Amino acid sequence: MQLTVTRDVFELDRVFTISRGSRTEARVLTVCISDGGASGLGECVPYARYGETLDSVAAQIEGLDLPFDRVGLQSALPPGAARNALDCALWDLAAKQAGVPVWRLAGLPAPGPEITAYTLSLDSPEAMGMQAAENAFRPLLKTKLGAGDKDIERIKAVCAGAPMARIIVDANEGWTPDVYAKLAPMLAELGVEMVEQPLPAGDDDALLQMDRVLPVCADESCHDRSSLGALVGKYDCINIKLDKTGGLTEALALRDAALNAGFKVMVGCMVGSSLAMAPAVLVAQGAALTDLDGPLLLEHDRRHPLIYDHRGVHPASPELWG
Fold first, then answer.
1. What per-residue string of b and e applies to 181-210 under the rule 16 or more CB within 10 Å gives b?
2. Half-sphere exposure of 204 (CA within 13 A, CB side)
3. Cα(101)–Cα(306) distance, rounded to whole angstroms?
4. Catalytic residue positions, numbered
5. Quick count: other Cβ atoms within 10 Å of Cβ 311?
């Protein structure tokens, strides 16, 4: 078994802003695992919110003793970006060695396209209204919020710019309980379907006592199956991201556990390339919400990118992954 890690930079087609800051590029790690003449690929996006950097995640990956397999990997590394890239590369490698797709190896139904949200960057109400108008043809828009007093104006502008689109919002931990209590009824009346992570993770117990007139989805508060117990009574939905779960293996297990516990499931992503989205498309099959728009935010993508059309994001070609 041979392991290589490379650093890739994908320029964004415009500045992308959330409540925690702005970026102009996506910096990712690409893992290649080769064995017996076949090679598997995986991608991860180290995330500063979880204490990750390109250097720290690369060190985690390169510090592993070879060889290893998917089962051993689950205990060798914690959930996070490093394990994600390795786990997905191992799935890709196994598919190539067996000559069958990952979905079949995993015992899943054949995948199809899934309608995905398209994310509007946090900006002034006027600018967000223009973003919405440019993307009014998309059936589902996700609006970044979290800057308080202008959030209602932002949503009104988005609704005016894309009157036929369904709307979900993401506060990225930027609200307080009082802000939720104030904004949630107004957002619901405007037709917003859900808010993602309104309160900071670790400081979200207030949701237990609140009337959730606008359904709430856990993002930063949910990483893997060990997170679920603390979310009961607070959240209506969880956002599964492979960079949080530590790969496809745990993501599939988390999806099943969440559904059995009564949560709705959303499948999301960091800002990465089609290689990062490809395994997540398998998890997103039949999900209540899919948010795998990372490649749509890039100026350039991988050589064999995912297809996005009116039916949504399509499963990967064998040339890309799986």
1. ebbbeebbeeebbbbbbbbebeebeebeee
2. 25
3. 16
4. 144, 241
5. 11
User: Taken in order 38, 43, 46, 47, is the CA torsion positive or negative?
Assistant: negative
- Which amino acid belongs to residue 229? G
Closest C-alpha among 203, 191, 182 to residue 164: 191
Element holding 159 (H helix, E strand): helix 151-161
Q: Which class for 56: exposed (0-12), middle (13-18), buried (19 or more C-beta within 10 A)?
A: middle
Query: Residue 259's closest CA among 247, 267, 269, 268?
Result: 267
CA atoms within 13 A on the CB side of 215: 17
Q: What are the pLDDT digits (tens) for 158-200?
A: 999 999 999 999 998 989 999 999 999 999 999 999 999 999 9
* 317 CB-contact burial (10 Å; exposed 0-12 / middle 13-18 / buried 19+): middle
The token pair at 57 is 């995640």
- The whole-angstrom separation of Cα 112 and Cα 165 is 22
| pTM of the full structure | 0.95
Q: How many Cβ atoms sit within 10 Å of the Cβ of residue 258?
A: 23
For the beta carbon of residue 273, count every other beta carbon within 10 angstroms.
23
257, amino acid identity: A
3-state secondary structure of 247: coil
Residue 255, both tokens: 């999806």
Identity of residue 204: D
β-bridge mates for residue 240, sequence order = 267
